[in-house]
């Protein structure tokens, strides 16, 4: 199995701690993450080379030259997405239909609930282990290469892409100071 670890990548649509909502047909939404890579990031060249290798192994050298016949995982953010986070970036989705990805903190220890709450959001940075794999055409679509999601390492915080703020920030002024006074309507 081909595998690559993309390092210190900003991510969006982060569904690694819990699955996406069920699909319209009732099937589980699965786990996934969208990876953003600058167009000049050297990791992009390595990933593209590995994707091509998987494609060649599946369909042969001559067929693989006709890239328009295939759906490929690496896409241009300038062409396909709106939003400043996509400017000058390539993006790709990595998914796992049923298997929850392994999650570790930046010390390579199994992530606990505090780690997940602190680092598991759109805009944070991760190391992401993915495996490119070939898939056949279904329902009239194109065959191609997709990225399977294996594991993630939480690396560092980044500006949130979803516009939300952490609960700890919202309620920082309301932390319990040890005073057990009852709630007073006059405080409103």
Outline the structure in words.
With 188 residues, the protein is of the alpha+beta class. The chain has a single domain, classed as Nucleic acid-binding proteins (OB fold (Dihydrolipoamide Acetyltransferase, E2P), Beta Barrel), CATH 2.40.50.140. Helices cover 20% and strands 30% of the residues. A 5-stranded mixed beta barrel has the order 1-2-4-7-6. The longest helix has 18 residues, at 42-59. The protein is elongated and about 75 Å long. The chain starts with a strand and ends in an 18-residue tail after the last helix. 23% of the residues are buried.
Q: What distance lies between the first and last C-alpha atoms, to the nearest angstrom?
A: 59 Å
Q: Calculate Rg over CA atoms.
A: 20 Å
Query: What's the order of the H and E elements?
Result: EEHHEHEEHEEH
Structural class: alpha+beta
- Measured as a percent range, the helix fraction is 10-25%
CATH architecture: Beta Barrel
What fold name goes in the CATH topology slot?
OB fold (Dihydrolipoamide Acetyltransferase, E2P)
Q: Supply the CATH superfamily name.
A: Nucleic acid-binding proteins
| Main sheet: strand order | 1-2-4-7-6
What's the assembly state of these chains?
A: single chain
Q: Major sheet, described briefly?
A: 5 strands, mixed, barrel
Low-confidence stretches: none
CATH class: Mainly Beta
The count of DSSP E runs of length 2 or more, i.e. the number of strands, is: 7
The helix count comes to 5
Give the percentage of residues in beta strands: 25-35%
Task: Let me know the average pLDDT.
Answer: 89
Number of domains: 1
